[in-house]
Write a structure and sequence with these properties.
Strand content: 25-35%
CATH architecture of one domain: Sandwich
Radius of gyration: 26 Å
Structural class: alpha+beta
Distance between the termini: 91 Å
Number of helices: 3
Helix content: 25-40%
CATH class of one domain: Mainly Beta
Order of helices and strands: HHEEEEEEEEEEHE
Largest sheet: 5 strands, mixed
Length: 177
């Protein structure tokens, strides 16, 4: 009887030591994973769709900047009746917006999209027809050119984050007349 009590006490002490050890190790792990990376620090993500930590909080929605006079002129040119032509649209993208987020064209127009990333990691994706810019970081630009498809409304969105950016409202439309 005395032997079984001693064994029980030893087992309880071993379990308590193991639990305390696990709590300490978990605390160290949590502190390590919660520490933000310094701006510009090397970031090795396993998933290419995960943005590196940045100095500003690009995971919170930001307001789209006001359209420039050049962007307003581009929008007016696309909206005005015209024979098929080449239209250029400068689109700024950030967390979680495009500016402008509505562009228009006539079927057969050549559309040149100049995508400027103003915050975070983003792209522009059309599903039908399948057109995608490069995924770029803050301060980078990518340009794509394509023919406007047949009459209709075509959504474009940011495919970064496996749908998260799109879900957060980073969407726009191309209206083809």
């Amino acid at each position: 009887m005395k032997n079984s009590k001693s064994i029980s006490i030893i087992i309880i002490v071993i379990l308590l030591v193991a639990v305390v050890y696990l709590f300490i190790q978990n605390g160290k792990l949590m502190a390590r994973s919660a520490a933000p990376a310094a701006a510009g620090e090397e970031y090795a993500a396993k998933d290419k769709d995960v943005a590196p930590p940045m100095a500003d909080d690009f995971m919170k929605p930001h307001l789209a900047p006001a359209l420039t006079d050049a962007q307003k002129a581009e929008l007016a040119a696309g909206a005005a009746p015209h024979a098929p032509a080449t239209l250029t649209y400068d689109i700024s993208g950030g967390s979680f917006f495009y500016a402008p987020n509505e562009i228009s064209a006539v079927a057969g127009d050549t559309i040149k999209l100049v995508f400027n990333d103003v915050g975070g990691v983003h792209n522009i994706t059309f599903d039908d027809p399948k057109i995608v810019t490069k995924t770029i970081k803050t301060g980078e630009t990518d340009t794509i050119e394509f023919k406007a498809p047949k009459k209709g409304t075509y959504e474009f969105y940011c495919s970064v984050g496996k749908g998260y950016h799109r879900m957060m409202g980073q969407i726009g439309v191309l209206i083809v007349r």
